Amino acid sequence: MPPARSVLITGGASGIGLATARAFAAQGCPLLLADISPSVHEVARSLGTPQAAAHAFEADMGEETQVLALASEAMRLFGGCDVLVNCAGVSQKRDGKAIPPTEVRTADWERVLRINLTAPFLLCRELIPAMQRRKFGRIVNVASRAGRTFSKGAGSDYAASKAGLIGLTRHLAGTYAADGITVNAVAPGRVHTPLANTSSAEVLAKAMQEIPAGRFGTPDEIAQAIVFLASDGAAYLTGACLDVNGGGFMA
Ligand SMILES: NC(=O)c1ccc[n+]([C@@H]2O[C@H](COP(=O)([O-])OP(=O)(O)OC[C@H]3O[C@@H](n4cnc5c(N)ncnc54)[C@H](O)[C@@H]3O)[C@@H](O)[C@H]2O)c1
């Protein structure tokens, strides 16, 4: 058995992040779960075991000082982390629909970019040096189909942040491949989570029609892709963006 890896997951209190936390907990991995929601404490309590602790960290990934505090907490607890899953993300909607680009306020654009793109960058910047020292690291960025192709249900800020996250993934992958660090992204299509449910029933019904599999994904199906990318078996896989979308977009 390989050693249980320490895992930091942002957005670990709900949806895909929570399913990912459960999957790593089932492998006996010590966890640090970060979320803006106070429910992250209860999630960590429910997942921790005497052999593998689960720590909670309540923080807003839109605030640089709180992101840096999270990185410091990972250094204090685990001397960094073996696996970093950047999963926290937000999508702005108005009446369940994407806001037209011409009506997006600058402050809202910047907040979406800070949470979805800048926070993953900051965590990578702070935690990669410890991975380099260990000669091991797995970074998985949760992007979106909306960062891969046009998606009517997504806003311009969201699409730009996720496309940027895929670009950042490739850049880091190339830069740190020789250090035993892999950096990959997953690009989920629609998944049954509270975030997807911010879309109106009309938007969701249309989205379903465009999926060859005829259904939305489950958080567990995305978590399994993340766990695979973080595994020892994926050591030679880096800079990829895995489309997990029931065939809704094929590159
Ligand atoms: N659900 C989908 O259809 C879908 C599709 C493509 C991509 N994604 C991406 O998957 C990721 C997870 O989303 P989900 O669908 O599980 O949604 P979710 O709403 O269930 O989970 C998102 C989590 O992020 C947390 N969060 C939000 N803002 C935060 C902030 N400022 N600081 C810290 N934590 C914050 C939330 O509290 C929540 O626990 C996101 O990055 C999202 O963009 C989701």
Q: Can you put this structure into words, describing what you see?
A:
It is globular and about 45 Å long. Helix content is 42%, strand content 14%. Strands 3-2-1-4-5-6-7 form a seven-stranded parallel beta sheet, with helices on both faces. It has 251 residues and is an alpha/beta fold. It has one domain (7-243): NAD(P)-binding Rossmann-like Domain (Rossmann fold, 3-Layer(aba) Sandwich), CATH 3.40.50. Bound molecules: nicotinamide-adenine-dinucleotide. Nicotinamide-adenine-dinucleotide is lined by residues 11, 13-17, 35-37, 60-62, 87-91, 115, 142, 144, 188, 190-191, 193-196.
Provide a concise account of the structure shown.
The chain has helices at residues 15-26, 39-47, 64-78, 106-134, 156-176, 201-209, 219-229, and strands at residues 7-10, 31-35, 54-58, 83-86, 137-142, 181-188, 241-244. It has 251 residues and is an alpha/beta fold. Strands 3-2-1-4-5-6-7 form a seven-stranded parallel sheet, with helices on both faces.
Number of spatially distinct domains: 1
Main sheet summary: 7 strands, parallel
- Shape from CA axes? globular
By secondary-structure content and strand pairing, the structural class works out as alpha/beta
For the secondary structure, the number of strands is 7
Helix/strand layout:
Layout: E1 7-10, H1 15-26, E2 31-35, H2 39-47, E3 54-58, H3 64-78, E4 83-86, H4 106-134, E5 137-142, H5 156-176, E6 181-188, H6 201-209, H7 219-229, E7 241-244
Parallel strand pairs: 1-2, 1-4, 2-3, 4-5, 5-6, 6-7
Helix pairs in contact: 1-7, 3-4, 4-5
Nicotinamide-adenine-dinucleotide binds next to α1.
